[in-house]
């Protein structure tokens, strides 16, 4: 049989199908972004037509529904009042006052406007992740007056104005509200862990893809900024609109540590299934890294893990450590406030914070301490989010005072304290304790340093690698290695650590209590000053501004970063 006869026979349908599929994929790849980013040709220069399309009832018109996001984007980019084009209101947007458009000359200048889309479905939560979001928003707006910001959120119980008031109240950030547009999402429940009682990782991953698609279709940006950690949405962004992706990772969704820990557990069918499920999930997690333009992480520990996972797809230029804004300059005080012999434990009341370890270690210290050692009072401060947390605090109190018979004068529990009271306690205390194992960063430890406390922290992750580091106070820089003259705090380990090794490099917390009780006033002051200097230099809001500006510089100066990825 000749080749031509073969092609006309059984292979012809296969070859034809492949050609058709490649043609279809080519059309999707290059036509879809243009379709979703640009309004229809007949209304590109007519804002009134665009507004009519935005207000139209497109429930039964798929074409109109898909173009509505492009129309909203166009109106935002060319309006003097971008913030008015939120999708919160169910009422039709009136033309009067809304279409205060730029002159032809101004429009030419405004072609340099860029829409930064910050994907943060829980933007009103008021935690550390939200602090990163809003500081990044502030810095992005200050970087260039032509930058505009979209916030993609699922906080449908409030409006944008209320969210921005909460930001100002919680973080004291001054934002140009006129350049911030809120796009409210309807499918946030798909990324809520309560939705997925089984296969939570997989469910949330698929849910984040759907939520990302909703965000893009409602208003596509020029740059996608994920500040909450939903990496499985990156391929969706790439396929739909092919724009740069900035990823800020607080901690990896799954890590090699998790796999090793699971593998070391007693063999069982359940553990085997779980292990291979996680392995497959890790493989998927690796693949999404190819769609990241610039990867940012909040600490060395997170950087090492994420870089190991995504190393095949990101170059050193694209991977950066950007420490979160800790407002250390607002905590530091120059006043010479007398310090009390007390240690603060600033942590949410949750079991993973290992409050019980601190209490047990303290009880052992009280039994075995030197006669001359004066025990510091322990003050546990934290928030209680639910009745479960309150019950946990009650359990800790019972464990302290009834089971271990620790005198009530030596331990105090304070729940849901006002920030001013916390700040006052920090400024008059001597030590700060953090016992969590492998905490990816540890903002409470930064607050200890900035407030002049001497940190006693677990020797792992963020506190070990980034925060309680040797510091040269004269040169105002971090030392690679250091003796006691550069010390900013102390470390401990415990035999309950998942990766505990009997090597006696670090003492236990009970032993450490005994050691720090022998410090002289001069030694305490020197350690405190070095720690304060470190916190102000590495973890201030200004330091975050500079780092984020550097990321935007990289994005601006290396436009080929994303173009290279488009060819993959």
TrEMBL record:
GO terms for cellular component: endoplasmic reticulum membrane. Residues 114-310 form the ALG11 mannosyltransferase N-terminal domain. Residues 336-474 form the Glycosyl transferase family domain. It is a single-pass membrane protein. Its EC number is 2.4.1.131. Pfam families: ALG11_N, Glycos_transf_1. GO terms for molecular function: GDP-Man:Man(3)GlcNAc(2)-PP-Dol alpha-1,2-mannosyltransferase activity. The chain crosses the membrane at residues 12-32. This is GDP-Man:Man(3)GlcNAc(2)-PP-Dol alpha-1,2-mannosyltransferase. It comes from Naumovozyma castellii.
């Amino acid at each position: 049989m000749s080749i031509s006869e073969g092609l006309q026979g059984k292979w012809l349908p296969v070859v034809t199908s492949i050609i058709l599929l490649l043609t279809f994929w080519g059309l999707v790849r290059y036509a879809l972004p243009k379709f979703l980013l640009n309004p229809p040709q007949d209304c590109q220069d007519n804002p009134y037509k665009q507004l009519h399309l935005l207000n139209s009832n497109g429930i039964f018109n798929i074409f109109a529904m898909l173009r509505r996001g492009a129309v909203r984007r166009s109106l935002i980019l060319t309006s003097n009042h971008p913030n008015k084009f939120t999708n919160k209101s169910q009422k039709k947007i009136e033309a009067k006052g809304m279409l205060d458009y730029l002159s032809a000359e101004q429009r030419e200048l405004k072609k340099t406007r860029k829409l930064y889309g910050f994907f943060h479905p829980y933007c009103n939560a008021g935690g550390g992740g939200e602090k990163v979001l809003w500081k990044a928003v502030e810095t992005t707006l200050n970087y260039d007056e032509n930058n505009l910001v979209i916030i993609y959120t699922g906080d449908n119980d409030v409006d944008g104005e209320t969210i921005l008031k909460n930001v100002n109240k919680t973080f004291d950030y001054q934002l140009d509200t006129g350049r911030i547009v809120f796009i409210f999402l309807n499918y946030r429940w798909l990324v809520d862990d309560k939705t997925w009682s089984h296969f939570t990782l997989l469910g949330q991953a698929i849910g984040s893809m759907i939520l990302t698609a909703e965000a893009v279709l409602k208003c596509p940006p020029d740059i996608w900024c994920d500040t909450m950690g939903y990496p499985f949405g990156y391929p969706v962004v790439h396929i739909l609109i092919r724009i740069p992706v900035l990823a800020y990772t607080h901690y990896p969704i799954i890590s090699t540590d998790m796999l090793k820990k699971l593998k070391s557990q007693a063999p069982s069918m359940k553990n085997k299934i779980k292990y291979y499920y996680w392995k497959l999930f890790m493989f998927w997690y690796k693949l999404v890294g190819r769609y990241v333009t610039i990867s940012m992480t909040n600490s060395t520990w997170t950087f090492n893990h994420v870089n190991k996972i995504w190393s095949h797809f990101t170059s050193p230029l694209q991977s950066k450590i950007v420490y979160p804004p800790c407002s250390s300059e607002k905590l530091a005080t120059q006043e010479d406030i007398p310090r009390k012999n007390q240690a603060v434990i600033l942590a949410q009341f949750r079991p993973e914070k290992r409050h019980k370890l601190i209490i047990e270690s303290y009880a052992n210290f009280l039994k075995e301490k030197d006669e001359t050692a004066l025990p510091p009072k322990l003050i546990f401060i934290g928030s209680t989010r639910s009745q479960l947390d309150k019950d946990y605090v009650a359990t800790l109190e019972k464990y302290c005072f009834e089971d271990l018979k620790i005198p009530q004068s030596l331990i105090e529990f304070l729940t849901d304290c006002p920030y001013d009271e916390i700040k006052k306690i920090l400024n008059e205390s001597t030590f700060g304790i953090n016992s969590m194992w492998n905490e990816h960063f540890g903002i409470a430890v930064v607050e200890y340093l900035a407030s002049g406390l001497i940190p006693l922290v677990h020797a792992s992750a963020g506190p070990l690698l980034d925060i309680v580091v040797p510091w040269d106070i004269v040169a105002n820089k971090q030392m690679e290695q250091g003796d006691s003259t550069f010390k900013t705090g102390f470390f401990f380990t415990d035999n309950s650590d998942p990766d505990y090794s009997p090597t006696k490099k670090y003492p236990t917390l009970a032993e450490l209590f005994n050691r720090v009780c022998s410090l002289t006033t001069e030694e305490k002051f020197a350690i405190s000053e070095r720690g304060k200097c470190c916190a102000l230099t590495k973890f201030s809001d200004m330091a975050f501004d500079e780092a984020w500006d550097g990321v935007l510089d990289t994005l601006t100066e290396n436009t080929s970063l994303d173009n290279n990825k488009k060819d993959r």
